[in-house]
Amino acid sequence: MVKVCIPRALLYYQYYPAWKTFFERLGAEVIISPPTNKTILNLGVSRAVADTCLPVKLFFGHVMSMMGKCDYIFAPAVTSLGNKAYNCSKIIGLPDMTRALIPECPAILGPEINLDKGRYHFYRNIYDLGRYFTSNPFKIKKAVEESWRSNLAYQGKMSSEGLTPVEAIDIMCHGRQEPDSGPAPSLSLAIAVIGHPYVIGDDYLSHRLIHLLESMGVKVLVPEMVPEGTLYDAAKRLVGTPHWSFETDIIGAGEYYMEEGVDGVIDLSVFGCGPDSMMVNFVQHRAKELKIPFLHLSVDEHTSDGGLLTRVEAFLDMIKWREKICV
Ligand code: SF4
User: Fold this and answer.
1) What is the pLDDT of residues 258-304, one digit of tens each?
2) Which of 87, 106, 145, 172 stands the most exposed, by the fewest C-beta atoms within 10 Å?
3) What CATH number has the domain bearing residue 127?
4) Does 173 map to a domain?
5) Burial zone of 150 (CB within 10 Å; 0-12 exposed, 13-18 middle, 19+ buried)
6) Helices (H), strands (E): how many in the chain?
7) What is the pTM for the complete model shown?
């Protein structure tokens, strides 16, 4: 059976269930790279130029960790999903950068996904991709339809059940048990954590921030727990029509959760991300206007667990102290 590897990085956190369904319906075996660890990060760092952002370095590390274990690596160039909003240039150039920096890697399946170029362009690229596995166009059409349904189910699961992308993927694709539907534990604070899903969801990159907050009794809210359209409208209220795809997730989620009255917002961004450095200012400024505590955490290869823990503890202490003196 043909083996397709999906690196556990970047858009994996947004589309893995859909991509898995697509390839499996075409008869391929889908494998994913292991969770990030220091070896994988070092592999990526060894190939990328120094000022490449951390998540892209990590993507290269995941590709290298799968060398010799699969026939193809899936690295699409997701340019735009419509509404004239575009992904960052590093995501658009991902297949070309991977081929150039890791010439010895298995063949790359790197279709361009650009819904702004219309349905014909999209379907032609998907059919070209499907032809690696079958010459039957009806089989490809069916795989596309099932993949789309899987994507809707994934998004619905996160927004209706309040799950993070990793939790939803674990339940839908890795057979993890649904969480116990008993009474929810009483949590003292509700904190929105905004940022790219591939940063928040990667335990190594994020230093397990979600687990850390939960262990401190915090109810954690991430962008994927809100329907896409709601986030889009919230981003529009704050900055106008989004032109970057991630504006919806980051600015939209920040604005939405602040309007909902969360106790605080943590922005988790990464070294070397141009879009992050612009987006964070909008949310930070708005938090100041609404008098909502805001913490900006930026991680790089050298960030330590201890440093991050200290800042998070101090932030939560400050919120609790503030709420005590305001009652
Ligand atoms: S949006 Fe930022 S973190 Fe994501 S790939 Fe682009 S530069 Fe890197």
Assistant:
1) 999 999 999 999 988 888 888 889 999 999 999 999 999 999 888 88
2) 145
3) 3.40.50
4) no
5) buried
6) 16, 10
7) 0.93
